[in-house]
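Recap from last week: sequence in, structure out.
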Amino acid sequence: MKRYLYALGFAVMLSGIYTSCKKTTSLDTMAQDELIAIDAYVKANNLTDTKDVSGIYFKDIEKGTGDTIKSGYKVMMDYKITMLDGYVIFTNDDGYGHYYNQFAFYVDVNDATLNQQYVQQIAGLHLGMKKMQVGGKAFMIIPSELAFKAVDNSGTIGIPRFTTLLVTVYAKKGYSPEQQQ
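Predicted C-alpha cells:
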C-alpha cells in the first residue's frame, strides 16, 4: 500500500512540475498573433483596400437594390460565419449550399431576448449591415475586438479568445422600424 502511495505522490509531483514549466501565452501575445493573422489573410486575399474606419473589412459581393439598411431595421438574412481557418461557427446553410430558415437580424436594437442570440451580439456585424442595401450580399472580416473580444467561449460555442470572424451575409429582405409595426 505504501508503494502505491509513493507512486501516486511521485506522479502528482511530476504533473505539477510539468504544469508549472509549461509555456503559457499571454493575452497580449494572443492579441498580437490575431493582428498578424488578419494582416496575412487580408494580403493573401487582396483585401487591403476594404478596411473601414470602424475596424471591420467590408466588401460588397453583390450590391443590393433596396433600401440602405439602418439602425432599427429587421433584416431577413442568410449567413455563414467562420474563423480564419474556415471552421464554421454559425450558419443557416445546410452544408450543401442550401439556406434554410432566414435569420431575423435586428440592427442596433437593444433587447434582452434578442441579445441572447450569439449572432446578434457581434458588434462588427451591426456595423457591416449598415453598409449594405437590402438584396445585397457582402463579405466582412470582423476582428475579435468587434466580435467576442478576449472572452474564451471555446467551451460553450467553440470560439477561442481573440478569434477573427469571416462573415458572408445576404440581406434578402429588410423592414424599417415603421414597417415592423
